[in-house]
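Hi all, long-time lurker, first post. I run a small reading group and we've been trying to get comfortable going from sequence to structure in the token notation. Rather than ask abstract questions, I figured I'd post a concrete chain and ask someone more experienced to write out its structure so we can walk through it together at our next meeting. Sequence below, copied exactly:
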Amino acid sequence: MDLIRDYAFPLLINVISKMLGIPSERQSLIHEWSEMLTSTGVHLQENTRHLLTQMFTEYLLQLIAEKRANPQNDLISQLVLIEESGDRLNENELLYAGLVAYQ
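-- Answer (accepted) --
Happy to help. Here is the structure in token form:
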């Protein structure tokens, strides 16, 4: 058993996902994407890496839109609601925050 691969990494992804407000039924998909994109042992072709990143990005943009429409008690909702001098974070800023959380 690889303690990091089999226990620590999935736990970390689940904790981050819960904090961000990723629904539990989508956490396994987020785990797969994160593992494939960050694993040093997996050598993905550039087009595969690009496709995975695009899928991850599209999912996060969809989630941001859902949180804008129906904020919950999670980090993405809080980021959506942050307002400073009348300005709110735009989708690119929110997307960057979501992607950085998994790296």
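A couple of things your group might point at:
The longest helix spans residues 46-69.
The domain at 3-101 is CATH 1.10.630.10 (Cytochrome p450).
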